[in-house]
Amino acid sequence: MVRFSGLEIFVKTKSKQGEAMKIITLIVTILLFYGCSGGVIGSENNETIDHVDWSIGTIDNPAGYSPTNESWLVTGMITNTGDTTILAPWWVEAEFYSDSTFTLILGGDQQSFNVNLQSGVSIQWTLSYSDPDKVEFESYPYFAIDNFRAFISKN
Q1: Whole-number mean pLDDT of the chain?
Q2: Rounded CA gap, 138 and 133, in Å?
Q3: How confident is the model at residue 132 (pLDDT cuts 50, 70, 90)?
Q4: Is 74 in contact with 109 (CB distance < 8 Å)?
């Protein structure tokens, strides 16, 4: 029979708890670092993809804009016009404004893509804005988006 003194048991327990805390801290750090890859709308910590063409509207929604009482939805297409493939993961983002004068910003949104986008290929994007505590959506029936960009994370 092996016997441990109270001090040995305390040290061994603290050691295991310390290791567990280090692992938990590492996992939380990784999740925060990689889980929020897109981050802030317009952040300079991301690399803009310049070789794309944007359009607002799809076959299902030619106008592209869909206001409701609870949110705004904008859909469209993005096409890789470059001669290289855009490798996943990559994102699109835009800012939502009260109207096409772009003088009152209301918020922004990002969408991530986990597929590569080859040269000449298009994919549909969807961005939405919803914050009923800050915006009465029916007050802005002519909302618009601007500062639209595609990017990859530098992280």
Answers
A1: 80
A2: 13
A3: low
A4: no
Q: How confident is the model at residue 41 (pLDDT cuts 50, 70, 90)?
A: confident
On the question of a cis peptide bond just before residue 89, with omega within 30 degrees of 0, the verdict is yes
Give the HSE-up count for residue 51: Cα atoms under 13 Å, Cβ half-sphere.
13
Boundaries of every domain in the chain: 1-35, 46-153
According to the model, what pLDDT value does residue 131 have?
80
The CATH number of domain 46-153, selected from 1.10.287, 2.60.120, 2.60.40, 2.30.30: 2.60.40
The residue type of 128 is S
Residue 154 has, within 13 A of its CA and on its CB side, a CA count of 8
pLDDT in tens, 56-95: 999 999 999 988 778 889 999 999 999 999 999 999 999 9
For 63-70, which contacts have Cβ atoms below 8 Å and span 24 or more sequence positions? 65/143, 65/144, 67/137, 67/138, 67/140, 67/141, 67/143, 68/137, 69/137, 69/138, 70/130, 70/132, 70/137
Q: Which of 76, 75, 72 is nearest to 98 (CA)?
A: 72
Give the three-class secondary structure for 123.
Answer: strand
**Token code pair at residue 6:** 């109270």
